[in-house]
């Protein structure tokens, strides 16, 4: 019989997806906030949101890489 590893736990996968969503939202919100600090111009706000979006994507990629490296065994 196949022994289950820690990567087979559905609760761990659900937790990872939840943390990724929260992390992504926080990065975008912080980008918006920093954009409004520089000025009320739409260019600064859009730039801040785009930087937050890029930071969120990078953060999620690093998080998934860390979790997958942990489950390789």
Q: Strand-and-helix sequence, N→C? A: HH
**Low-confidence sequence ranges:** none
The total of beta strands comes to 0
Described by strand count, sense and barrel closure, the largest sheet is: none
Cα-to-Cα separation, first versus last residue: 18 Å
Q: What is the alpha-carbon Rg in Å?
A: 17 Å
What is the overall silhouette?
elongated
- Structural class by sheet pairing and helices: mainly alpha
Transmembrane segments: 12-32, 44-68
Keywords: Membrane, Transmembrane, Transmembrane helix
Protein name: AtpZ/AtpI family protein
Explain what you see.
- This protein is mainly α.
- Helix content is 81%, strand content 0%.
- α1 runs antiparallel to α2.
- It is elongated, with a radius of gyration of 17 Å.
- The model has no long low-confidence stretch (mean pLDDT 88).
């Amino acid at each position: 019989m196949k022994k289950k590893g820690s990567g087979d736990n559905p609760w761990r996968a659900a937790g990872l997806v939840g943390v990724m969503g929260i992390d992504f939202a926080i990065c975008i919100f912080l980008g918006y906030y920093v954009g409004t600090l520089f000025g009320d111009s739409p260019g600064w706000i859009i730039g801040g949101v785009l930087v937050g979006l890029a930071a969120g994507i990078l953060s999620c990629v690093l998080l998934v890489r860390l979790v997958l490296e942990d489950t390789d065994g």
